[in-house]
Amino acid sequence: MSPDHNSGPNYELRFSRTPVLRARLANVTMAETLVIIGRFVIARVPRLIVTANVDHLMLLEKDPAFREVYERADLVTCDSIPLRWACAFLGRPVKERVAGADLFYTIAAHAAEKGWRLFYLGAADGVAEKAAAVMTARYPQLKIVGTYAPPVMTLEELIKDDETFRRVSTATPDILLVAFGAPKQELWLDAMRDKLRIPVGIGVGAAFDFAAGTVKRAPRWVQNIGLEWLHRLFQEPRRLWRRYLLGDAKFAFYVLREKWGNRKDYEATGEKPANGKTNVK
Predict the structure, then answer these.
(1) CA 206, CA 15: separation in Å to the nearest integer?
(2) In the 8-state DSSP scheme, what is residue 154?
(3) What is the reported pLDDT for 273?
(4) Cα three-residue angle 149-51-183, rounded to 5 degrees
(5) End-to-end CA distance of the chain
(6) 90: nearest Cα among 273, 279, 280
(7) What are the distances in angstroms from CA 280 to CA 14, 16, 38, 80, 92?
(8) Which pLDDT score is estimated for 166?
(9) Rounded distance between C-alpha atoms, residue 58 and residue 254, angstroms
(10) What is the mean pLDDT of the chain?
């Protein structure tokens, strides 16, 4: 991928997509992701960015609606060190981990420089507001044009909720960051993107909590050895034990099954699975 920062909005960025289980990850670095986001902001067409982790891939195995969102997403990054390891094991390495929690801070830094307007939606009451205060203190030029934590609702109720729609739409952000948890945040963004017409929508999970200090993120060395999930589990065992110990425990089995399946396909056809190419305008 060869980004040109001086090119017009119709400049095409090409990146490969790496297939793993039921997802196709964009093989991009953090720097390339920011270039793509900049193209999306300029183009003013509603786009959806998903940051894929092991939990997402396990949900994709049983949730057809979530699979459809992944298929429609404009950019799917690799959010997980274990997922990156799995890609390498399958012979399809990705360049870099582009985690939603890291992207949250990097977007803020670039938004302050470029004048992008951000909206923080979701998390518990007061968390997005506190996160916004922390980020504007760090980046004084940052334009956070709104925060809102809707009452607890089902996905269907959120999609129909006039107050949430009014708050976001009247603020006219360039980038909408949503913390409803997966897969709710991605399903809501996909359902609402043509109605809201916001250039970039991203589900950021616990990023507001990390920024606000209500949840402590794992140290970098713990992230680098693939144990960030264990750190989260120790912090919130009652909420997360089922996800990590039951749901995500099957991940290794699915990766091994895909590895063996691909080996059989290669032996039968003599061809290795090809990565697709995607253009971003």
Answers:
(1) 28
(2) -
(3) 42
(4) 55
(5) 13
(6) 273
(7) 6, 11, 11, 23, 21
(8) 98
(9) 9
(10) 85
Q: Which two tokens stand for residue 126?
A: 């007061």
Dmax over CA atoms of the chain, in Å, equals 59
Helix or strand or coil: residue 120? Answer: strand
Cα torsion 217, 84, 52, 105: sign: positive
The answer to whether 131 and 55 are in contact (CB under 8 A) is: no
Enumerate residue ranges in the chain where pLDDT < 70: 1-13, 217-248, 262-281
Torsion from C-alpha of 150, 104, 55, 84, nearest 10 degrees: 170
How confident is the model at residue 108, as a pLDDT?
98
Residue that has been written with the tokens 């992944």 in this structure: 70
**Residue 108 is inside which H or E element, if any?**
helix 100-114
Q: What share of the chain is helix, strand, coil (3-state, %, to 5)?
A: 50, 15, 30
pLDDT at 104: 97
Task: Give the 3-state secondary structure of residue 125.
Answer: coil
What one-letter code names the amino acid at 107? I
pLDDT tens-digit series, residues 194-228: 999 999 999 999 999 999 999 876 566 655 655 66
Number of Cβ within 10 Å of residue 53's Cβ equals: 24
The CA-based dihedral angle spanning residues 123, 124, 128, 134, taken in that order and rounded to the nearest 10 degrees: -120
pLDDT digits (tens, 9 = 90+) for 1-25: 444 333 334 445 678 899 999 999 9
Quick one: 108 exposed, middle or buried, by C-beta within 10 A (0-12, 13-18, 19+)? buried
- Please report, for residues 73, 145, 222, 234, 279, the alpha-carbon distance to residue 38 in angstroms, rounded to integers and kept in the order given: 17, 18, 31, 37, 14
Sign, CA dihedral 57-107-36-220, equals negative
Tokens of 262: 């691909």
DSSP type of residue 25: E
Can you tell me the distance from the alpha carbon of 270 to that of 217, in angstroms, rounded to the nearest whole number?
45
H/E stretch holding 13 reads strand 13-20
